[in-house]
Amino acid sequence: MKSLVTGATGFLGSAVMRCLVAANHDVRVLVRPDSNRKNLENFPVEIVEGDLLDHTSLHRAVDGCDYLFHVAADYRLWVPDPEIMHKINVTGTEALILAAAEANLKRIVYTSSVAALGLLSDGSPANEETPSDYSAIRGNYKRSKYQAEQTVKQLTMKHQLPLIIVNPSTPIGPGDIRPTPTGRIVLDTLMGRMPAYVDTGLNIAHVDDIAEGHLLALRQGQFGQQYILGGDNLTLFQILQYIDEISGTSQNRINIPTNIMLPLAWCMEKIAVLTHREPRATVDSIHMAKKLMFFSSLKAERELGYRHRPAIEALRDAVKWFRDNEYCQ
Question: What topology is assigned to 2-172+203-231 in CATH?
Answer without folding.
Answer: Rossmann fold (3.40.50)
